[in-house]
Amino acid sequence: MFTGIVQATCKVEKIIEKAGLKTFEVALGTELLQGLKHGASVANNGVCLTVTELRDNIAIFDVMEETLKLTNLGNVKQGDLVNIERSLTYGSEIGGHVLSGHVHTQATVKTISHTAEHYNILLEVDEKWLDYIFYKGFIGINGCSLTVGEIEGNCFWIHLIPETLSITNLSDLQQSSLVNIEIDSQTQVIVDTVAKIMARKFAD
């Protein structure tokens, strides 16, 4: 489990293509490496990956073909920065909201509005996911716990503060960039439960 509070952006030093997967070698700082062990879970752009090897300041992850297809890790290149968060430990402060590291879909950057007063991004998602996206609700974007802004059709705004921009890779986004989306699990359960109850009611 994760909190959606990104701890650092880390450089992908090397990507090795293998049959059915890619191996990512990611340079983690000393603080992130402290106590990290083989088999630990680490979120990369919001995707829960397992540490398969540790070497000096490098953590190595195998990314399966299905994950590459469903998330923006398939577009990551050597030298890119990925948002990193280590898994939640018992007793840790949850500053964001609980994330599983299982990406539901991707969203496309439609517009970036950057002025001296604000930094806003308009994201477009497949219409079927809008049932779970609410104004002022929680959402995970590239592993960042964020609050949903205004909704326009099948698009929604996010409003970023300087701190978020400084410690994540969201400041690197451009028009047409793809971001990983994790829907808030509690919202999904509530919406799906209500839909089932209503479907049964009208079926009677």
From TrEMBL:
The keyword Repeat applies. The keyword Transferase applies. GO terms for biological process: riboflavin biosynthetic process. Residues 1-97, 98-194 form the Lumazine-binding domain. Coiled coil: none annotated. Its EC number is 2.5.1.9. CDD domains: Riboflavin_synthase_like (cd00402). Lumazine-binding repeats lie at residues 1-97, 98-194. It catalyses: 2 6,7-dimethyl-8-(1-D-ribityl)lumazine + H(+) = 5-amino-6-(D-ribitylamino)uracil + riboflavin. It comes from the Bacteria. Keywords: Repeat, Riboflavin biosynthesis, Transferase. PROSITE patterns: LUMAZINE_BIND. GO terms for cellular component: cytosol. Pathway: Cofactor biosynthesis; riboflavin biosynthesis; riboflavin from 2-hydroxy-3-oxobutyl phosphate and 5-amino-6-(D-ribitylamino)uracil: step 2/2. One of its GO terms (molecular function) is riboflavin synthase activity. PANTHER family: RIBOFLAVIN SYNTHASE (PTHR21098:SF0), RIBOFLAVIN SYNTHASE ALPHA CHAIN (PTHR21098). Catalyzes the dismutation of two molecules of 6,7-dimethyl-8-ribityllumazine, resulting in the formation of riboflavin and 5-amino-6-(D-ribitylamino)uracil. This is Riboflavin synthase.
